[in-house]
Write a structure and sequence with these properties.
The complex is a heterodimer of chains A (about 800) and B (about 290). Chain A contains 19 helices and 30 strands. By secondary structure, chain A is of the alpha+beta class. In chain A, α14 runs parallel beside α15. Chain A is globular, with a radius of gyration of 28 Å. Chain B has twelve helices and 14 strands. In chain B, the strands form four sheets. Chain B has a five-stranded antiparallel β-sheet with strand order 4-5-10-6-7. In chain B, strands 11-12-13-14 form a four-stranded antiparallel β-sheet, with helices on both faces. Classes of the chains: A alpha+beta (about 800), B alpha+beta (about 290). At the A-B interface, α4 and α19 of A face α12 of B. The site of flavin-adenine dinucleotide has 29 residues of chain B, from β2, α7, α8 and β10.
Chain lengths: ~800, ~290
C-alpha cells in the first residue's frame, strides 16, 4: 500500500509492522469463545419475548412449559425482583426500575418477559412457546419528538415524564460571541438508530460454586464495572464474583454490556445448582439484547464571521435511549471532551435532553456518543462553507487549532494534548490526490453524473477518564479510570505480562508484549500475556474509550522500566559498581567502558530468584512488579463553571471519500476512500490499520445502510439481517491510508487512542461526499443513514417540486 | 433460533421422494429440503415447522443442465452457481446468465437450487422472473404422475404457486431464442446480493433489418408475483427500436405494476424506478443484439 509514513522510528519493536500475537489463533480457528466453554450439566436459557411495545402483563402461566420433559424452571420478572436488586443506570433515576425481565409492564417489543431453563436450547425454545402470557396492549411512546409531548404515553409512569435528563451547559461568553459574530446559521441534523454489530452475539455461562461460594462467569463482555454490577444486583460481595477474562470476545465495539443477561443467568445458576448458559441468538440480540446505539436529533446554531471563522456554537441534542437507559445516557456526556472538534471556538452552549421511549434500550457504541456529535458539527462546517462560497478545506484550515498552540484548552475546560491538524489535512489531500479527484468529479459532472468528493475531520478523545459522568450526575464523583499491569520475569528469564481485562479484538496481547519487549529489549514473540480473572485482577476499568494503548501501554512501560532498573541494580551490585556504571543492551549488563565486565540476562535472573547472597540487600527477591496507572491529567472534579479536563489524549483523522449516486435508484457507490490519521506513536501498525478500516466500515454502515426502523406503533421492522443492513465486503471499498505522528506528551511513547477514529470520521465524510454530489441540484441532506430510497426521494422532489398551493 | 422437532428423510431416487411426499393419512406437514437457503432459516425462526423433512439433495435425477438445441433443461436440484458457471447458460440462456449473479452471494448460490427459487416464487427473486420472461416449461412429478406447466400462470400470488401438495418440481425447460438476439438484466437492491427492490429483464430478437421481431420483458418487486410486461412488448414488436420508441414504450409501466411498500423502498419508489430499469435493460439488450 502506498504510504508516506514518518521516518522509521528509533524503536526496535514499537511501530514496526510485526505480526500480531492474536491473529494466529483466530485465523486458525483456535479462539476460545464463550460458546466453547463446556461445563458438565450445563442448562440452557431460552427467552419469552413480548410481542407488544407497551402492555400490561396481566398473568403469566408457566405450567405447560414446566410440565415438559427436560424443563427445570421458568423464571419471571416478579421472581427476580424478590431475589435480586434492580440494575444500574448512569444517572439517578429512582423511579425507572430496570430488571433482567419485565415486571408488570413490557416497555418494548422484544423485551424479555420470562426465561425458560432446560436441558438443551431446543427444549427451552419448545417450552418457551408454551409460556402463556396475558397482555393488555397499550399505546406506545414512539418518535423522538412525540415522546416529549405532554400527552404522550409514559414509558415509566412512576417517573412521571419521558424526559430522563435535561441539562444545559454554557461555557464561555456565548451571548457576547453570538452578538459579535457577523452571521449565524441554524440547522437540524439527525443520527438514526444504528449500532455496532459484533459477529458474535452476547453470551454468558455462570456457575455457582458451592464449595467456594463464588459465582463463576464466562462471558463475551466489554463492560467497565461488570463484576461490580453483578455483585450488586445478586446481593453478593464483589469478591464472590469471578469473571474469567481469558475468554475471547467476538467483537463488541461497545455494545457487549451483558449485565441483565448475566444477572439472570447467575440467579438461575445459584438457584438451580448447575451451570446456566444464555447465548443470545440474533433475534434475542437485536430486539431484546444490547444492540441499539444513539438515536439523536440535533438543532445547532453556529455564529461565524464572513471569513469563515466560527466563534461560538449552540448545540441542542435530544437522544432517544429507548426503554431502559442503563449507562447510555452518559453517551451525551463524553462528547463534551471534544465538542468543538479540532476548531477554535471561544464559547459553547450544550443543551442535552435524554428521552425514554418504547424502543429497545440503547447501549454504548464505539465513540460513546462522539460519532453523532462529530457528524452534527461537520455538517455545520460544510454548510458555512457552502453559504460563504469558501473551499471546504480552507474553512477547516482557518478554524483549526494551530500546531504551536497546544496544549489548547477548549471552552469546556479540557486541554487537547497535541496535534498538527493542518499538516494531517494537507497530507490527506496530497495522499488522496485531492486536485485529481476534483478533476475527476468535475469531468463526471460534466457528463451529468452525480459524483461528490467528501471531506471530514474528527477528533478522537482517548484514555477514558469518565469525569464527564459527574457533569450529568453530580452523585458520581469519579476522577480517574485506572488500568494496571503486572509484570514478571520467571526463573528461566521468560517475561509474562498479566492484564486485568477481557479483550474484544483490540489486540491487547500484542500491545502489552510490544511495549514490554521494547523496554526490556526482549523479543515480544516470546513474551506471554495472560488475562487475570476478576478475583486476581488489579484495578481496571477495561478496554473502552480508546484507552488501552494509552493506559495499559503506559502501565506496562513503567512496570517494565522498573524491572529493567532493578536488574541493572542487581548487576551493578554483583559487578561492584554504581548503578549508573552499568549499561543494559540486548540482554547484557555491561560496565560502561569495560566490555569484558558483564552479566548476562540469565545470570541476573538466577541471582534474583535463587542467590540471595549475591543480591543487593535493599532488593526483594524475584523479578515482579505491579503498576497501576491513573489517567494523565485527571484527578479533578469540574469547577463551578462546569469546566474540567475529561480525556487526556486526542487523535485526529481526515477522511476523503469519492462517491457516485445513481440518479434513478439513489444508490451510492464509494469510488475511492482515502484517510490520514494521527494517533501519535503507533504501537503496532497492523492493529491501528485494522481498527481504522473496521471503524470506517462501521461508519459506512451508519452513514448509508444501518437503521433500526420502527413502525409508528412500536414494532421493530429491522430485527434481522434481512432488513438491518450491514455493509458487506461489496460495500466497503479498498481504503487507502496514510499516517502522521504527533506524539502525545502524556504517554510512555507518545501513543494515543486509535479504536474509534474511523467510525467518528466516516459518517461525516460520507455525508459530505453525498451532499457534494447533490450540490449542483442544491440538495442538502442532514439525516443519517442516507439510504438509497432517501436519496432517491430527495432527487425526485427536486425534479418535481410540489407546486405552491394558493392560500 | 432452533427448529422445532422434525423427522428427516434422505431419498436417493425421485420415486422414493414422491412416495415419501405423498404418504399422507396423518396430519404430518411434509416438506422438501433443497439448498436450504430459505427453508433452513425459516425453520430456525420457526416460521416453517415441517414435521417431515425430505432432503432431495442426493437425487441425481434432479441434477444437471442439458442442451437440447432449441431448449435447455435444468434439473430443479442444480445449484445456482453450477448453472451460472456452465458455458451452456452463457451461450444459450444469456438472460439467465445475466440474472444469476444477482441472486444472493456466491456462497448462497453454491447451495441454493434453481428449483428451490422457482418454487418459492418470491416476487423479487431473479430466477422466477427469468423463467416467466422466457415462459419456461416446468416439469412436475408426483407419486401418480408427471405433468408440464408453463411459467406463465405458475406464479399465483405472494409466495404462492400452482404447485400442489405432493408435487416435486423436477426440471425447468427454458426455450432458446435463435437469430439476432440480445438480453440484459438490471436491478436495484439495497446492497449487492440482497433481494431486488426492483428488477427488470429484457430479451429482444431483431431481423436482418434491425426490426424487433420478438420481445420479452418483465419486472420483479413490482407486484405480488414476478410480472411480464406484455404491453411494453407489444409496443416494440414490429418496430425499429429507437431511444424515442423505447421511452414511449416504457411510459405506461407505472400503471402496469402494482407494487407494495417495504422497509427499504416505498411503492412510489418502485413505481419510479421500474420504468427506468426496464429502459436500461432494453437499451442494453438492444445494443447487445446490434453487432
Ligand atoms: C443471504 C441470502 C441472500 C439471498 N438473496 C437472494 C436474492 O437476491 N435473490 C433470490 O432470488 N434469492 C435469494 N436468496 C434465496 C436463495 O436464492 C435460495 O436459494 C432460494 O430462495 C431457495 O432455494 P433453495 O434451493 O435454497 O431452497 P430451500 O430453501 O431448500 O427450499 C425452499 C422451498 O422450496 C421447496 N422446494 C425446494 N425445491 C423444491 C422442488 N424441487 N420441488 C418442490 N418444492 C421444492 C422447499 O420445500 C421449500 O419450501 C438469498 C438467500 C440468502 C441466504
Amino acid at each position: 500500500m502506498p504510504d508516506d509514513r514518518p521516518a522509521a522510528s528509533n524503536y526496535r519493536y514499537i511501530s514496526q509492522p510485526r505480526r500480531t500475537k492474536e491473529d494466529k489463533r483466530f485465523i486458525t480457528g483456535r479462539g476460545a469463545f464463550v460458546q466453547d466453554v463446556q461445563l458438565a450439566h450445563t442448562k440452557h436459557i431460552a427467552l419469552v419475548a413480548s410481542p407488544y411495545p407497551r402492555a400490561n402483563i396481566l398473568s403469566i402461566d408457566t405450567s405447560a412449559a414446566l410440565a415438559m420433559d427436560g424443563v427445570l424452571d421458568v423464571i419471571t420478572g416478579a421472581e427476580l425482583t424478590e431475589h435480586t436488586d434492580r440494575l444500574y443506570h448512569g444517572v439517578d433515576l429512582p423511579n425507572v426500575r430496570w430488571h433482567p425481565l419485565a415486571v408488570d409492564m413490557t416497555r418494548y417489543a422484544g423485551e424479555w418477559v420470562a426465561a425458560v431453563i432446560a436441558d438443551s436450547r431446543y427444549i427451552a425454545e419448545d417450552a418457551a412457546e408454551l409460556v402463556a402470557v396475558e397482555y393488555e396492549p397499550l399505546d406506545a411512546a414512539i418518535g423522538i419528538e412525540r415522546v416529549m409531548e405532554p400527552d404522550a404515553p409514559l414509558v415509566h409512569p412512576d417517573h412521571g415524564s419521558n424526559i430522563l435528563l435535561k441539562k444545559k451547559f454554557v461555557w464561555g461568553a456565548v451571548d457576547d460571541d453570538f452578538a459579535a459574530a457577523e452571521h449565524t446559521i441554524s440547522y437540524r441534523a439527525r443520527w438514526g438508530r444504528s449500532s455496532a454489530v459484533p459477529i458474535e452475539t452476547f453470551g454468558v455461562i455462570t456457575r455457582w460454586s458451592e464449595k467456594d461460594e463464588v459465582l463463576e462467569v464466562w462471558a463475551s463482555i466489554q463492560m467497565p464495572q461488570y463484576q461490580e454490577q453483578i455483585a450488586d444486583a445478586l446481593r453478593i460481595p464483589l469478591n464472590a464474583v469471578r469473571v474469567h477474562n481469558y475468554i475471547d470476545v467476538g467483537g463488541s465495539y461497545g455494545v457487549k454490556r451483558g449485565i441483565k443477561q448475566t444477572v439472570l443467568s447467575g440467579y438461575a445458576a445459584r438457584k438451580l445448582g448447575c451451570p446456566v448458559r444464555l447465548i443470545e441468538d440474533r433475534i434475542d440480540n437485536m430486539s431484546g439484547g444490547d444492540a441499539h446505539g444513539p438515536d439523536r436529533l440535533f438543532d445547532v446554531t453556529l455564529a461565524y464571521n464572513g471569513d469563515g471563522l466560527i466563534r461560538s456554537m449552540k448545540m441542542r441534542v435530544v437522544d432517544d435511549v429507548g426503554a431502559y437507559p442503563g449507562r447510555s445516557i452518559q453517551q451525551l456526556g463524553k462528547p463534551i471532551s471534544a465538542l468543538c472538534g479540532p476548531y477554535r471556538m471561544s464559547s459553547i452552549e450544550y443543551d442535552v435532553t435524554s428521552v425514554t421511549s418504547n424502543k429497545t434500550s440503547q447501549v454504548a457504541v464505539r465513540g460513546f456518543g462522539q460519532a453523532p456529535t462529530n457528524f452534527a458539527l461537520e455538517t455545520g462546517v460544510e454548510k458555512i462553507a457552502r453559504r460563504l462560497g469558501l473551499d471546504r478545506t480552507e474553512i477547516r484550515r482557518r478554524n483549526f487549532i494551530r500546531h504551536d498552540e497546544f496544549p489548547w484548552k477548549i471552552p469546556s475546560g479540557t486541554a487537547y494534548d497535541s496535534g498538527d491538524y493542518h499538516t494531517v489535512l494537507d497530507k490527506a489531500m496530497r495522499f488522496a490526490g485531492w486536485d485529481a479527484l476534483i478533476a475527476q468529479r468535475d469531468a463526471a459532472r460534466a457528463e451529468g453524473r452525480l459524483v461528490g468528493l467528501g471531506i471530514a475531520t474528527c477528533l478522537e478523545p482517548g484514555g477514558g477518564n469518565n469525569i464527564f459522568e459527574h457533569l450529568l450526575n453530580e452523585k458520581i464523583q469519579i476522577t480517574t479510570f485506572v488500568e494496571s499491569a503486572l509484570l514478571k520475569i520467571d526463573g528461566q528469564g521468560q517475561v509474562t505480562v498479566a492484564i486485568s481485562t477481557h479483550t474484544a479484538g483490540q489486540g491487547h496481547q500484542t500491545l502489552a508484549a510490544t511495549v514490554a519487549g521494547e523496554e526490556l529489549e526482549r523479543d515480544p514473540d516470546g513474551i506471554r500475556v495472560v488475562h487475570l480473572d476478576s478475583l486476581e485482577a488489579l484495578p481496571t476499568r477495561g478496554p473502552v474509550a480508546s484507552r488501552m494503548a494509552i493506559m495499559l501501554g503506559s502501565a506496562v512501560s513503567k512496570a517494565a522500566r522498573r524491572l529493567r532498573n532493578r536488574m541493572i541494580h542487581i548487576a551493578a551490585h554483583d559487578l561492584a559498581v554504581a548503578d549508573t556504571e552499568v549499561e543494559y543492551a540486548d540482554g547484557e549488563f555491561t560496565v560502561r567502558g569495560d566490555p569484558a565486565r558483564k552479566r548476562s540476562w540469565l545470570e541476573i535472573v538466577f541471582i534474583a530468584h535463587r542467590q540471595l547472597h549475591r543480591m543487593p540487600p535493599d532488593t526483594e527477591p524475584g523479578l515482579q512488579t505491579i503498576e497501576v496507572h491513573a489517567v494523565p491529567g485527571g484527578g479533578k472534579l469540574p469547577n463551578e463553571k462546569g469546566e474540567v479536563q475529561i480525556y487526556p489524549c486526542f487523535s485526529f483523522q481526515a477522511h476523503i471519500p469519492l462517491v457516485e449516486i445513481d440518479r434513478v435508484t439513489g444508490q451510492v457507490e464509494i469510488l475511492d476512500y482515502a484517510v490520514a490519521h494521527d494517533c501519535g506513536t503507533v504501537i503496532n501498525p497492523k492493529i491501528v490499520r485494522g481498527m481504522m478500516m473496521g471503524g470506517i466500515g462501521h461508519g459506512i454502515g451508519a452513514a448509508l445502510y444501518e437503521k433500526f426502523d420502527y413502525t409508528e406503533d412500536g414494532q421493530l421492522l429491522s430485527g434481522t439481517f434481512l432488513d438491518y443492513l450491514l455493509p458487506s465486503a461489496h460495500e466497503i471499498p479498498d481504503i487507502r491510508d496514510t499516517e502522521h505522528c504527533t506524539p502525545s506528551p502524556l504517554t510512555s511513547h507518545g501513543q494515543k487512542g486509535s479504536g474509534e477514529g474511523g467510525y467518528l470520521g466516516a459518517p461525516a465524510a460520507l455525508a459530505s461526499a453525498v451532499n457534494d454530489a447533490l450540490e449542483p441540484l442544491d440538495i442538502s441532506l442532514t439525516e443519517l443513514p442516507m439510504r438509497l430510497a432517501d436519496i432517491e426521494a430527495a432527487l425526485h422532489t427536486h425534479a418535481n417540486p410540489v407546486p405552491e398551493t394558493a392560500p | 433460533m432452533k427448529a422445532a422437532e422434525f423427522e428427516y428423510f434422505r431419498p436417493t431416487t425421485l420415486d422414493e421422494a414422491c412416495g415419501l411426499l405423498a404418504d399422507t393419512g396423518d396430519d404430518a406437514d411434509r416438506c422438501l429440503l433443497a439448498g436450504g437457503q430459505t427453508l433452513v432459516p425459516m425453520m430456525a425462526m420457526r416460521l416453517a415447522r415441517p414435521t417431515h423433512l425430505i432432503d432431495i439433495n442426493r437425487i441425481t435425477e434432479l441434477q444437471g443442465i442439458r442442451d437440447l438445441g432449441g431448449s435447455v433443461e435444468i434439473g430443479a436440484g442444480t445449484r445456482q452457481r453450477a448453472v451460472e458457471k456452465d458455458p451452456i447458460t452463457r451461450r444459450k440462456l444469456p438472460l439467465l446468465a445475466a440474472a444469476l449473479p444477482h441472486v444472493g452471494h456466491h456462497q448462497t448460490r453454491n447451495r441454493g437450487t434453481v428449483g428451490g427459487s422457482i418454487v418459492l416464487g418470491d416476487a423479487s427473486a431473479e430466477i422466477p422472473l427469468v423463467a416467466l420472461i422466457l415462459n419456461a416449461t416446468l416439469i412436475i412429478h408426483r407419486r401418480d404422475g408427471r405433468r408440464e406447466t408453463m411459467a406463465d400462470g405458475f406464479f399465483e400470488g405472494p409466495m404462492m404457486t400452482a404447485l400442489e401438495p405432493g408435487d416435486i418440481l423436477t426440471t425447468i425447460r427454458f426455450p432458446v431464442w435463435d437469430g439476432t438476439t440480445g438480453s440484459a438484466f438490471h436491478e436495484v437492491a439495497p446492497r449487492k446480493g440482497d433481494y431486488a427492490l426492483v428488477s427488470a429483464g429484457a430479451q429482444v430478437a431483431l431481423d436482418a433489418n434491425g426490426t424487433c421481431i420478438r420481445a420479452a420483458i418483465g419486472v420483479g418487486g413490482c407486484a405480488p408475483t414476478p410480472l411480464r410486461l406484455q404491453a411494453v412488448e407489444d409496443a416494440l414488436v414490429g418496430q425499429r427500436l429507437t431511444d424515442a420508441l423505447i421511452t414511449q414504450a416504457i411510459a405506461p409501466v407505472p400503471d402496469l405494476i402494482d407494487p407494495e411498500s417495504s422497509v427499504h423502498a416505498s411503492a412510489a419508489y418502485r413505481r419510479r424506478a421500474a420504468p427506468q430499469l426496464v429502459q436500461r435493460a432494453l437499451l442494453d439488450a438492444l445494443s447487445e443484439a446490434r453487432p
